[in-house]
Amino acid sequence: QVQLQESGPGLVKPSGTLSLTCTVSGGSIDNSFWCSWLRQTPGKGLEWIGEIYLTGNTNYNPSLKSRVTISMDKSKNQFSLKFNSVTAADTAVYYCATSFFYAIQDWGQGTLVTVSS
Amino acid sequence: EIVLTQSPGTLSLSPGERATLSCRASQSVDSTYLAWYQQKPGQSPRVLIYGASSRATGIPDRFSGSWSGTDFTLTISRLEPEDFAVYYCQHYLTSPPGYTFGQGTKVEI
Q1: From residue A95, how far is each of A2, A32, A39, A78, B68 by CA, in Å?
Q2: A46 at the B interface (CB within 8 A)?
Q3: Does A41 touch chain B (CB under 8 A)?
Q4: C-alpha to C-alpha distance for B58 and B84, rounded to whole angstroms
């Protein structure tokens, strides 16, 4: 079990880019799990954004894929999310997490990102 | 796309009672890819069950998962005060890879 902490701006302007970083502690990013990003809103509930593996392989939610990039910096034990062309509909609590055996095992505490001018 | 429909939306029970939560998949799914989560206000979700019936580390044995066909069930045998929360089911699709969640069931006093 590892600990995860999201960091990044809490306010992003419409049409801008949302950028978040997840720092993993209590263990190293390794080949035993995938690193995921998810978000949660009162209206749409929990939504998976995408994931990255140690090798750099990524999978994305097809409905968001055109606007999302997930990357990893193994040396810093971090992985990151970039979300382009954001609108108010992207306002949400964003979580980083690890997934193992087809379930989201460890979650960060979540960070609220508001899209507003 | 597989849609997970949870019922009921809200379950009103008392401590000590049994809770039965349902999650129905829109098509046949492999139970290997079905998980359940608990979320309390202001907290992140916590995995309870994976593989439809395997308890995650540290989860009390009053939580159990089962399934029949496309119907998955989370049972809390005797509700403790700390069990009042929102519960989500989740499915992992292998092709294309990705996770989908049900809309949640709130268990309230």
Answers
A1: 14, 20, 6, 14, 32
A2: yes
A3: no
A4: 18
pLDDT tens, A14-59? 999 999 999 999 888 877 789 999 999 988 899 999 999 988 999 9
Three-state DSSP class for B108?
strand
Find the largest Cα–Cα distance for chain A.
Answer: 41
Per DSSP, the residues of A40-101 read EETTTEEEEEEEE-TTS-EEE-TTTGGGEEEEEEGGGTEEEEEE-S--GGG-EEEEEEEEET
Helix, strand, or coil (residue B13): coil
Mutation to test the B interface, candidates A1, A6, A41, A46, most B Cβ within 10 Å: A46
**8 A C-beta contact, residue A92 and residue A35:** no
Q: Tell me whether B56 touches chain A (CB under 8 Å).
A: yes
Do residue A46 and residue B92 have CB atoms under 8 angstroms apart?
no
Beta bridge partners of B4: B25
DSSP type of residue B31? G
| Run of H or E including B74 | strand B71-76
Q: From chain A, pick out residues whose CB is under 8 angstroms from the CB of B35.
A: 102-104
Nearest alpha carbon to residue A37 among A75, A83, A2, A77: A83
What pLDDT is attached to residue B28?
92
